[in-house]
Amino acid sequence: VVLFTFLLQQPNCGCAPEFNSTMAEPVEKLKTIREGSAEILVAEHVFYNPVQEFNRDLSICVLATFSRVWQRERAEARRKKAKDGPEEVVELVAGQRCEQGLRILEALSATGLRSVRYAN
């Protein structure tokens, strides 16, 4: 919905599929891509390499492990700085924003699928 709203607001950008004002859906059909618990809708012309699914699986595992280690080290540093005061435990929930969490840029993403999977 957000994609189509943007494309309708930018009709001359050259990237929007043609829309018929009498139709509720675009002329260009979308396909569903599913990986893990993520699901995205993309136009037929969008590049998607299914062979790279293992690479995306691996990067998600590595990132999840790094995030746990990083959060643990940050908690340890805060505890030492507070001179062994009460330990603040931050509950991390997938799909919910953590202000002190990691920030990731997927600058060369064709579909954004890896980013969606990171958020899940």
From TrEMBL:
The keyword Methyltransferase applies. It catalyses: guanosine(26) in tRNA + 2 S-adenosyl-L-methionine = N(2)-dimethylguanosine(26) in tRNA + 2 S-adenosyl-L-homocysteine + 2 H(+). Its EC number is 2.1.1.216. It comes from the Eukaryota. GO terms for molecular function: tRNA (guanine(26)-N2)-dimethyltransferase activity; tRNA binding. PROSITE patterns: SAM_MT_TRM1 (PS51626). Keywords: Methyltransferase, RNA-binding, S-adenosyl-L-methionine, Transferase, tRNA processing, tRNA-binding. InterPro entries: SAM-dependent_MTases_sf, Trm1. Gene3D superfamilies: Vaccinia Virus protein VP39. GO terms for biological process: tRNA N2-guanine methylation. GO terms for cellular component: nucleus. Belongs to the class I-like SAM-binding methyltransferase superfamily. Trm1 family. This is tRNA (guanine(26)-N(2))-dimethyltransferase. It comes from Culex pipiens.
